[in-house]
Amino acid sequence: MDKQEQATHKKQNRTVKTAVTLIVMVIILIFAGIVGVSLGPISIPFKETILIFLHKLHVINYDGFTEQQWVVITEVRLPRVIVASLVGAALAVAGVSMQGLFRNPLVEPGYIGVSSGAALGAVCSIFFGWSAMSSWFLPISAFLGALFATSVILLIWKATRQQSIAVLLLLGIGINSFFSAVMNVMVATSKNEQELRSIVYWLQGGLEARTWEHVSIIAVPIIAGSIFLLFFGSKLNMMLLGEDHARTSGINTRLTRNIVLTIAAFITGAAVAVSGVIGFIGLIVPHILRLIIGPDHRLLLPASAFGGAAFLIFADLISRVIIQPITLQVGVVSALIGAPLFIVLILRSYKGASL
Amino acid sequence: MIQVQNLSVVLNDQPILKNIDIEVKSGEYFGLIGPNGSGKTTLLKTIAQLLPCEKGNMTIAGKHPSDYKQKEMARKLSYVPQDTNIDFDFNVKDIVAMGRHAHGGFFNKNDVDEEVVQEAMVATNTWRFKDQSILNLSGGQRQLVFIAKALAQDTPLILLDEPISALDIYYQMHILKLLEELTEKGKTVITVLHDLNLAARFCKKMLLLKEGQVEAYGETKEVITKQNLKKTYRIHAEIRDDQLIQALNVTPL
Q: Residue A248: which of B78, B89, B108 has the nearest Cβ?
């Protein structure tokens, strides 16, 4: 009886911890969203922002705002903040899934060619002038590039006998350098200044001038993909114990790996398609959260989605306001924060590193 | 329970096991012994379907392994590996509870599972550190945790790879007796053991491997003989029937 009570007590503790963590993450995300929408060259008070939000959601009827505030919020900043949160969530969820899969906290989606493939696709579309034809062409070709690169890597990998993780990561590094060489050729042979600028700009990763159209391109793939990955929480936990444990506990490790990798590539591709290459989020956000809430993927996956979203909103905010009137690229800000953290991370995780 | 016929295993172009024929019946306490590098772990992993076999045939509970889905297989056999190193900060009870995966549906978790997990942890004396991180445990404690995980998996066949290698003398006896009780309840235990005295005391049947081949196979008395130990381990040993524990006693000379 006593032990049973203890067991239920423990279970309740877990539920409480999960609930508290997720509520805190949601609050952080909402806070990030409000700050992100309020701040900028035209500053709008937080209270006003909240009221406009509530009005837009038809919760209350409020008309104390100016036309300009309404346009700035709903047409300029809100889509940008939503794109930032979707991209951040996608990168963090893809990162945490892959880290679980490879039992290595230093892995991120870029390592299986997703980012460089998407980048190459996007650069191609700028270089060959497709992006000028329709605003859908750049994201679509980035997405196809991501899919292509990942498929090539996974196909070569599957042809190898051992299918070891080291081989996969090395293939990723190989493809990444090859693609970046091809992109350099394109940059070098680019005929006009404008084209060159937009290629470089895109490669650095940015969220400027993102519209509702961008939101509509990525919302469904990212949200659906992320929710799908949430169901793999307990499987990823068992993969962390090692291949032998996972398989003898009833996990079809090969199938799980293929599904998780494909979905991770899919949502990363969608993210990179509209934001350009933004590094380190898939690495930093899961790691910080793992330190705080532990390695349990059933909690870590949703927490990373919210954390990644909030992180990218803040990074984007910093990029807009830190050296006004100059706007830094959000990819640059993310790397400025992320790279030093990454180095600290490597130094600290020497014990678990199996690269 | 398990039938292995003419099994050969090749790893990295090296033949590891050659023409192994064994049969382990339900409720048997079966020992795998042999010198280092003789193929004990490879055989155990092949039975656990963690390694592909080059040729030969195997049936588990009457069915070919490929006829099982991964989860069905995990309800038939559990496996305790030799290596218990974990780099991730899970708490002990969570790890044991992972043994229940094969019994759950897609959205698993029920109260029966809680009870089974607790029972397995109490039996292995790991319940007292259920809330601790696995990273804080000693090698021996980790070994007990993974034995608890296999017990929680509640399978008719339990495969163990040197399950007592990091345990003190109290827990060595405790675990080997626990496995004995399980075989008395009808479960089948196949375990790799290095300690010949303990193997002789608990295992009713044995396989002695030498360089990937069967050197001796059968009742413990037929396997643990002077000649066999001399041929495989290159030791001179005296083997006596110990009346106190009613088992063979191996004393290397």
A: B78
